[in-house]
Amino acid sequence: MFGGLECVAADLDGTLLGPDGLPGEADRAAVRALSAAGIRVIAVTGRHPHIAEWPVRLAGCHPAAICMNGAAVYDFAAGAYRAVEYMPGEEAYRACRLLDRLGAPYAAYAADAILLAGAWEAGNFYEVHFSRCGSRFRHKPVYCRDSADFGGREIADLLLPGVPSEAAEALRALAGRMEGVRLVSSSGSCVDLCGAGVSKGAALREYCRREGFSLAGTLALGDEENDLSMLEICGHPFVPEGSAISGRLPGARVTARCGRDPLAHALRALFPVG
User: CA dist 58 to 61, 90, 132, 226, 272, Å?
Assistant: First the structure.
């Protein structure tokens, strides 16, 4: 049924998850069919594991997911990291102190916590997420005055959600002067700062190498700039209609838009019936 396909790597937000934050029924059925055929479906997301577990399980993906834009692989079945790569400490905290001075709310992803610094509004993304998922998935974020409250934790990813342009441009300029980090756009107006060698593509390449999957036999599905690195290396790249990266990757095929079961449509395009 899925001849030659070994693995599926799917982004979550804006791709496998619809505007309501849930996977579509046809996509969930597609994940079940793929899994039954022995094809692994991996979530590849910018999310911290604390906010990735519920949608990963809801969609039926394999419990070992690539998280934090490729900085980590977390095994939800084992409840442990398989791998995690942090930003250089001094450069991470240099960026945090810049954002502290600008007063911009941001999230710092440590291994054991989501640290929210600055003036976050009530009803923010994290609060909405944890209000919807079951109690077993509620790892609530830690609200901090600024980075001085982080306890010196190592940081894998910094996220600026819907950032003011001043903060985004200041962070972009700072990142350009530091060798150990890189800036990448994720969903909507969000930007992430992560280690220089971190990307979804690098993590997926290593994941497939360890698990014995070929990249040529991998279908990748994503909608944002942070997905390009994995789309570029896979044999079957698909981009949802209307996404931010439509037309940026020669050879990528367009599938149904977010919220209309893009995975199921990609599979029908790749393996037409009749």
Answer: 8, 37, 12, 23, 27
Q: Which two tokens stand for residue 94?
A: 């240099």
Continuous segment of H or E residues that includes residue 130: helix 125-132
Indicate if the pLDDT at residue 51 is higher than 70.
yes
Query: What is the CATH code for 89-195?
Result: 3.30.1240.10
**CA pair distance 266, 260, nearest whole angstrom:** 11
**Phi, psi dihedral angles at 54 (to 5 degrees):** -60, -50
Q: Which residue(s) pair with 108 in the sheet?
A: 115, 158
Q: What is the mean pLDDT of the chain?
A: 94
User: Are the beta carbons of 212 and 200 closer than 8 angstroms?
Assistant: no
What is each CA distance from 223 to 32, 91, 212, 262, in whole angstroms?
A: 22, 29, 26, 11
| Structure confidence at residue 156 (pLDDT) | 98
Alpha-carbon span 5 to 25, nearest angstrom: 22
Q: Is the pTM of this model over 0.90?
A: yes
More confident residue, 108 or 274: 108
DSSP state of 136: G
Bridge partners, residue 239, by sequence: 254
Place of tokens 């906010």: 51
Please name the fold of domain 7-84+199-270.
Answer: Rossmann fold (3.40.50)
Cα–Cα nearest to 22, from 53, 50, 58:
58
Q: SS3 for 251-272, per residue?
A: CCEEECCCCCCHHHHHHHHHCC
H runs (alpha helix) in 5-124: 25-36, 49-59, 89-102
The span from the CA of 183 to the CA of 231, in Å, is 18
Percent of all residues in the chain with a pLDDT value above 90, rounded to a whole number: 82
* Domain boundaries defined on the chain: 7-84+199-270, 89-195
